[in-house]
Amino acid sequence: MTEIWARTQEDVDEAMESAGASAGDVAGVGITNQRETAVVWDKTTGEPIHNALVWQDTRTDKLVDEYSRDGGQTRFQEQVGLPLATYFSGPKIRWILDNVDGAADRADSGDLLFGNMDTWLLWNLTGGTDGGLHITDVTNASRTMLMDLKTLDWDAGIMDVMGIPRAMLPEIKASSEVYGEVRSGGALQGVAIAGDLGDQQAATFGQTCFSPGEAKNTYGTGNFLLLNTGTEAVASKNGLLTTVGYKIGDQDAVYCLEGSIAITGALVQWLRDNLKMIKAAPEVEELAKSVDDNGGCYIVPAFSGLFAPYWKSNARGVVAGLTRFVTAGHIARAALEATAFQSREVVEAMNSDSGVALESLKVDGGMVGNDLLMQFQADLLGVPVIRPKVPETTSLGAAYAAGLATGFWGEVEDLRENWVEDKRWEPSMDAEKRDEYYKYWKRAVTKSFDWFEADEG
């Protein structure tokens, strides 16, 4: 982790040099990060005590089962908006404390600090062992399973159940405010750090989804669909997460419903790296275009279980509907379609929870350059799919948050004027064909359920 931090510093300096910019040209720095990825480090030495546990890590499954015995998977959902699952940070902290010699005692003594990756970056940027700020924002805190959505503070009862000392946890701040300044040296020395959002909330911010009912879907390693529900935290009855969307300064927090899908772009990587079907991810589109449809083949990529709307950690991936007719082209097409099918499941859950049918879908992320996928997504949803001029809206959202806090922009309406449509896909598939495809997808999903018993995991 120390080497990673050093490389991060070098990358920032190189980016500033290539842009011909100096610290005086930067109004503020915004941070966005992979949520739920947990790191615990020694506050005296600055050294992590274990490798970070990433969001897809399933080694906390036994802890999740243990916590679920009293109250089930929804035991803490009323307070934190999340079901008990390996996805979230809280159980990851406990796993590290249980599996590193002496860690639990050091945590009780106040010697260890925890953070999602934003907290690790902020601490290092603001001085590290020399007075670094141990802070996070409400969006990242809402992904730990430890923050009460109403109070926006750590929940003492849940911390007690999981055995996590409060002294380990960072102070919770707004997503857009001036926290401090860069004190780690390098090209950004002295620049205000003024924005912090988890990646999916940052993308929502970058897509300017500032009004209730506005939604975006990010297509990356996994897919994440967020719907703005305003200043009310809406409880899901259909397998979605209730999460904090953002908080600007002293204003009320804005909440979202979220549908999290574990494996989408990662399935294309699997075709490339494990099956060697393609040499580079963009090649999947041409291979998929070599056939007219999926040939009856469906891939359910439950590599680490299923997230929304099922939350089945003991599901595993399946390829269904195979015949001798199926070719590499059909498998490539089924891999792309799996992303669209999973997104439709989340949209249906979101429509049911919100009571409002989605009229269009803003999209961003690495996969939105795939025209075949985007057209199939529009066909499957029956609504337009819209890509902005700037598809990497995660970084844009972090910049927007920092710019608001430092006065570079005056209000969110100024940001709306920056959003420009690049391309739109209109649905062209008839409803009968759409429903036929979806029927077989749902049938394939059931084949992935309960692949092993909980105590076998």
3D architecture notes:
The chain is α/β, with parallel strands linked by helices and 457 residues long. It is 36% helix and 18% strand. It is built from 16 helices and 18 strands. The strands form 6 sheets. Strands 12-13-11-10-16-17-18 form a 7-stranded mixed beta sheet. β10 (215-219) and β11 form a beta hairpin. α9 (199-206) crosses α14 (393-405) and α10 (265-273) runs antiparallel to α12 (328-354). The longest helix is centred in the last third of the chain and has 27 residues, at 328-354. The model has no long low-confidence stretch (mean pLDDT 93).
Layout of helices and strands:
Blueprint (H helix, E strand, L loop, with lengths): L1 H18 L9 E5 L4 E5 L18 H8 L8 H4 L8 H11 L3 H6 L3 E5 H9 L9 E3 H4 L5 E2 L4 E2 L1 H7 L8 E3 L2 E6 L10 E7 H8 L8 E5 L3 E8 L10 E6 L7 E8 L3 H9 L9 H7 L8 E3 L17 E3 L7 H27 L6 E4 L6 H11 L3 E4 L4 H13 L6 H5 L4 E5 L5 H16 L11
Parallel strand pairs: 1-9, 4-7, 10-16, 16-17
Antiparallel strand pairs: 2-3, 5-6, 8-9, 10-11, 11-13, 12-13, 14-15, 17-18
Keywords:
single chain, 457 residues, alpha/beta, 7-stranded mixed sheet, 16 helices, 36% helix, globular
- By secondary-structure content and strand pairing, the structural class works out as alpha/beta
Total DSSP E strands? 18
Strand content: 15-25%
Alpha-carbon Rg, integer: 22 Å
Number of helical regions: 16
Arithmetic mean of pLDDT: 93
- Main pleated-sheet profile: 7 strands, mixed
Euclidean distance between termini CA atoms: 29 Å
Order of strands, widest sheet: 12-13-11-10-16-17-18
Uncertain stretches of 5 or more adjacent residues: none
Specify the overall morphology.
Answer: globular
Helix percentage:
25-40%
